[in-house]
Amino acid sequence: MYNDAPINERSEDKLHRMNFVDSLAKSIRNYSSNDCIVIGLMGKWGSGKSSIINLLESEIKEDICILRFNPWNYPSQNMLISSFFDELTILLDKLGIDEKVKIYLSKYKSKILDNLIDLGSTYVLLLKHYLVLLIIMNILL
User: Fold this and answer.
1) In the beta sheet, which residues pair with residue 125?
2) Residue-range domain boundaries for the chain
3) What is the pLDDT of residues 96-141, one digit of tens each?
4) What whole-number distance in Å separates Cα of residue 140 and Cα of residue 71?
5) What is the spatial distance between Cα 51 and Cα 5, in angstroms, rounded to a whole number?
6) Three-state SS string across the chain, please?
7) How far apart, in whole angstroms, are the C-alpha atoms of residue 73 and residue 124?
């Protein structure tokens, strides 16, 4: 019988994922652009995505501020968006970020929620003459 639970520690890595995790952690630490960075981790169910995320978080948590947010926990898009901004505000509060930033985030959250147009699985936000598409995929890999 095999244990299917994700691992959390380097010492638990029996499938040699740490080479990949170390390389990814180094890339994140060395990222110097002012542009945003997005990293996607794709794989079939049970392939080790959660283990890699856990190991990566343990490697970079001293250097990088991490907000762990699971979109599958929310039954509606409004709750998902609202909860994301609430969690982000809590994290910024813990970091001692200026109150003006938290007020701006609250206003931004309200604008998003007020301008959400349901088009099936695609949500269109119209903010300041920009068209932003949020693709909410309800597919489990």
Assistant:
1) 116, 132
2) 10-60, 71-135
3) 888 888 888 888 888 888 877 554 444 444 433 333 333 332 333 2
4) 12
5) 8
6) CCCCCCCCCHHHCCCCCHHHHHHHHHHHHCCCCCCCCCCCCCCCCCCCHHHHHHHHHHHHCCCCCCCCCCHHHCCCHHHHHHHHHHHHHHHHHHCCCCHHHHHHHHHHHHHHHHCEEEECCEEEEEECCEEEEEECCCCCC
7) 22
Cβ pair 99, 87 in contact under 8 A: no
* Residue whose tokens read 């638990």: 12
Q: How many CA atoms lie within 13 A of 97 on its CB side?
A: 15
Give the pair of three-digit tokens for residue 110: 């309200």
Per residue in 4-50, pLDDT (tens digit) is 889 999 999 999 999 999 999 999 998 888 777 778 888 888 899 99
- Does residue 51 contact residue 1 with C-beta atoms inside 8 Å? no
Enumerate the β-bridge partners of residue 133: 124
Give the C-alpha separation, 99 to 95, whole Å: 11
